[in-house]
Specification:
globular; EC 1.2.4.2; seven-stranded mixed β-sheet; Rossmann fold; alpha/beta; oxidoreductase; glycolysis; Transketolase-like_Pyr-bd
Length: 943
């Protein structure tokens, strides 16, 4: 220790002993901001010894803390020797021992025996060498204080301290947690690891349970391998301890009060999990292997399917659900989070105790897929937190054919991304199933204690290759040479129990025989399975099943109720200071509510939400700027200009109203949209909306759109009523802020899978949003929502328009034209309608009719036919769009329009008008934009 530090210690003797935590907090403060501590402490802290140059800077307070602890226990407390050095050689070594202890806590995992194959290349860790700390074997019998170690004694010989440190931090459990800033969390983890040296003794009953689970995991793979040789199953062979982990997790979570556990995982080990954890009947799985059709839909391969069941735990019945998952690896993770949040909201659980999210990852995907980072980032945000997620990384140490660390990642571990949210990471050797069970218990308890994410890095291997038809030795010769010699996890553990006298060899064989017999008999193999489950644990979808597509839905609202809701929306607490421009918007809305002014888009949209809430349906809206609205039209969240407090009128309509949730999201599209999809699939009675900042921002979430939103119903029979609001319109803002890529959604339309609409009036968005939740049909809704129309003087509606009627899929000609005099028909959708209407008025073209198609899919052929029925003298028909002709609605919709026109008059030919075909969505030069807009409008009106 430096002289100044010792002097400070003696000057401030009142700080250690009972006030030791104050000293530690002082140093924690120094690490975050040196200027926040007194100068005399700051100067001495600057000169403190470091554990090692490679250590991160958030941990060197440990030697100080532990030295203070040692001094507080030292009864002599004699004055330091002259010159200010530590008073004796023993005290010098004591400090070094404390530094060594800290080094093992920080870096012990780097030499831990976590690879069952023994092939993992490890770099030298000098901090863990005795000599690095100026200690040697000559000090082995010397007794030292243990400082803050939870080893059950205050002092011990160095050789015992070292042996216990190695057992705790360097055997089959490698605990990585010292990157956590919160001292309480670190001490909690230490209090769980160190007393049992990371290896608590399991009871005979628990050991037999572990063997039974390993037998099931291995037994299923062997059975499938022999019965369906060569068939893809993405088996769990080499990672069978995952079944032990999941079983432990569910049972412990249930014991602690959880009512539901939702699991997301990719295909590796999924079939094993469905049979051995969820209790799926093996006979059903065998039917799937034999390709028998069970549902009248397109379906999906067996290792993408979801499942749910109920199991019994010590804490009662628990519902467990497996999320459906495509082969996009990590994309199911945020879907799980959304489903969990919905379940928690349904239970009124804002802490996260009753529903536990579990995401199972592959090691290469965990470090390689950006959505993992996005999902971690949402974990503690108000809109998306779920009380902590338990992550299990099934670490096969290879991704398809890539295994070299320098090719697969730039970090030491595949799990290092989890450090961004200071999640503890427990690396564990999959061939030590007792250790796997222990770290799983630890992970569940940590999540329950701190409501934060935690990671189990289950080091194992992949015995068969990427799939059962793959030959892996061609690309990983050394790894698979070792795997061929490697005994299975079950073999190793069974032999261990036989050696311990827990079971006999005959009993071990009987375990295998019983499991195989159950499979052959087509029996459920999960002993905790509840065969008559409590239906209250399920989400009730019955009211939403079996409804065919229909355009008809009365979405009108009593006029008096609309006025009352409108007036309430304009109220704010007394003394609440609203920003000047926002106050003008509110004042205008007061006039709109009174019927003294026509309604704009923002008011109609707000009334839609208010009326939905008044009818008992929750509303949830998220997106990057949804509180205000990207284009300043919504102002659903008001901000006090004096205090920065917020007020949401939609949350204060009445005391009995359901939840109104509105949050600005963090800057993510993929994870956030996936979250909202998961939420919507679990809360069918809610209006769930994701709004893009600009429509083309949804490009970053295309995987969610392709794999879930447009195809989920037909692949997995998973209904979803999610609404996407995508600002769309060509207003000269360039190629990145014009198009929501309407053509992409229309290309994905089939089998009435989604709805794609382009509303052009406030009344239309009012009725469209209400239809989405009032009607029991649950289909995703994609809205090409406006930008400039939000304040367009012609884009207005009356209160009566909202009170009466419903959404109009087609809006016919609004002017009183003579139908027989109409020679040209212009079909269009979206903002371009107003440009067309105004140009026609300028030119006084009374022989041109303009019809808006407000819903492009499912296409309203009957409504379009009705709108043009009286135009018996048509000579030409055009479809006009703002988008380039290789984009927009033209290619995917023209056949619907042609079919209607052919029925009306077979001689009519449909022409398309729009911007020239383009590789980019729009031009970047405003002059070119204006020129193109003029040209397409003129061409549409004049021909």
């Amino acid at each position: 220790m430096q002289e100044g530090v010792m002097e400070l210690l003696w000057k401030n003797a009142h700080l250690y002993g009972g006030n030791l935590s104050y000293v530690e907090q002082l140093y924690e403060t120094y690490l975050l901001d040196p200027n926040a501590v007194p100068q005399e402490w700051r100067e001495e802290f600057d000169r403190l010894p470091k554990v090692g140059e490679s250590l991160s800077q958030d941990v060197p307070h440990s030697p100080v803390r532990e030295h203070f602890l040692y001094l507080s226990k030292n009864q002599k407390r004699s004055q330091p020797a002259a010159g200010g050095s530590v008073s004796s050689e023993h005290e010098k070594k004591q400090v070094r021992v404390l530094r060594m202890i800290n080094a093992y806590r920080v870096r012990g995992h780097q030499i831990a025996n976590i690879d069952p194959l023994g092939l993992m290349e490890r770099e030298d860790v000098p901090d863990l060498d005795l000599r690095f700390h100026e200690l040697s074997e000559a000090d082995f019998d010397t007794t030292f204080q243990l400082g803050s170690l939870f080893f059950g004694a205050e002092e011990a010989p160095l050789k015992d301290i070292l042996a216990d440190l190695k057992k705790t931090y360097c055997t089959t459990v490698g605990a990585e947690y010292m990157h956590i800033v919160d001292t309480q969390e670190k001490r909690w983890i230490q209090s769980r690891l160190e007393p049992v040296r990371s290896h608590p003794e399991a009871s005979v009953e628990k050991k037999k349970m572990i063997l039974e689970r390993l037998t099931a995991a291995e037994g299923l793979e062997k059975y499938l391998g022999s019965r369906y040789a060569g068939a893809k199953r993405f088996g769990l062979e080499g990672g069978e301890s995952m079944i032990v982990s999941l079983n432990t997790l569910i049972q412990r979570a249930g014991k602690q009060g959880a009512k539901e556990v939702v699991i997301g995982m990719a295909h590796r080990g999924r079939l094993n999990t469905l049979v051995n954890i969820f209790g799926k009947n093996p006979a059903e799985l065998f039917s799937e292997f034999e390709g028998k059709k069970t549902l009248d839909t397109s379906g999906d391969v067996k290792y993408h399917q979801g499942f749910s069941s109920n199991v019994m735990t010590a804490g009662g019945e628990v519902h467990i659900a497996m999320a459906f998952n495509p082969s996009h690896l990590e994309i199911a993770a945020p879907v799980v989070e959304g489903s969990v949040r919905a379940r928690q909201d349904r239970r009124g659980d804002d802490v996260g105790t009753t529903v536990v999210p579990v995401n199972i990852h592959g090691d290469q995907a965990f470090c390689g897929q950006g959505v993992v980072m996005e999902t971690f980032q949402m974990s503690q945000t108000r809109a998306y937190k779920t009380g902590g997620t338990i992550h299990i990384v099934v670490n096969n140490q290879v991704g398809f054919t890539t295994s070299k660390k320098e090719d697969s990642r730039s970090t030491e571990y595949s799990t290092d991304v989890a450090k961004m949210i200071q999640a503890p990471i427990f690396h564990v050797n999959g061939d030590d199933p007792e250790a796997v069970r222990f770290v799983t218990q630890l992970a569940v308890d940590y999540r329950n204690e701190f409501k934060k994410d935690v990671v189990i890095d289950l080091f194992c291997y992949r015995r068969r290759g990427h799939n059962e038809a793959d030959e892996p030795s061609g690309t990983q010769p050394l790894m698979y040479a070792q795997i061929k010699k490697q005994k299975t996890t079950r073999e190793l553990y069974a032999q261990k129990l036989i050696d311990e006298g827990v079971i006999t060899a005959e009993e071990s064989k009987e375990y295998e025989k019983e499991y195989r017999q159950a499979l052959e008999n087509g029996q459920h193999v999960v002993k905790s399975l509840v065969h008559e489950p409590n239906a209250e644990l399920f989400v009730d979808w019955k009211p939403y099943l079996g409804h065919e597509w229909s355009f008809d839905c009365d979405t009108g609202v009593d006029l008096k109720l609309l006025q009352e809701l409108g007036s309430t929306l304009c109220e704010s607490p007394e003394g609440f200071v609203v920003q000047r421009q926002v106050q003008k918007i509110i004042d205008d809305r007061k006039r709109m509510a009174a019927g003294a002014m026509e309604l704009n888009w923002g008011m109609a949209e707000s009334l839609a939400y208010a009326s939905i809430l008044a009818q008992g349906h929750p509303v949830r809206i998220t997106g990057q700027d949804v509180g205000r609205g990207t284009f300043s039209h919504r102002h659903a969240v008001l901000h006090d200009q004096k205090t920065a407090d917020t007020y949401v009128p939609l949350q204060n309509l009445s005391e009995e109203q359901p939840a109104m949730t509105i949050y600005d999201s963090f800057l993510s599209e993929e994870a956030v949209l996936a979250f909202e999809y998961g939420y919507a699939t679990t809360m069918p009675n809610s209006l769930v909306i994701w709004e893009a900042q600009f429509g083309d921002f949804a490009n970053g979430a295309q995987v969610v759109i392709d794999q879930f939103i447009t195809s989920g119903e037909h692949k997995w029979q998973r209904l979803c009523g999610l609404t996407m609001l995508l600002p769309h319109g060509f207003e000269g803002q360039g190629p990145e802020h014009s198009s929501a890529r309407l053509e992409r959604y229309l290309q994905l339309c089939a089998e009435h899978n989604i709805q794609v609409c382009t509303p052009t009036t406030p009344a239309q968005i009012f009725h469209l949003l209400r239809r989405q939740v009032i009607r029991p049909l649950r289909k995703p809704l994609v809205v090409m929502s406006p930008k400039s129309l939000l304040r367009h003087k012609q884009a207005v509606s009356s209160l009566e328009d909202l009170a009466e009627g419903s959404f109009q899929p087609v809006i016919g000609e609004v002017d009183a034209l003579d139908p027989k005099g109409v020679k040209r028909l212009v079909l269009c959708g979206g903002k371009v309608y107003y440009d067309l209407y105004n140009r026609r008025a300028e030119l006084e073209k009374e022989d041109v009719a303009i019809v808006r198609i407000e819903q492009l899919y499912p296409f309203p052929e009957t409504y379009l036919a009705d709108a043009i029925r009286d135009y018996t003298n048509l000579e030409s028909v055009v479809w006009c769009q703002e988008e380039p002709m290789n984009q927009g609605a033209w290619y995917c919709t023209q056949h619907h329009m042609r079919h209607v026109l052919h029925q009306h008059n077979p001689a009519l030919n449909l022409q398309g008008v729009g911007r020239p075909a383009s590789a980019a969505p729009a031009v970047g030069y405003i002059s070119v934009h204006v020129e193109q807009q003029e040209q397409l409008v003129n061409e549409a009106i004049n021909g």
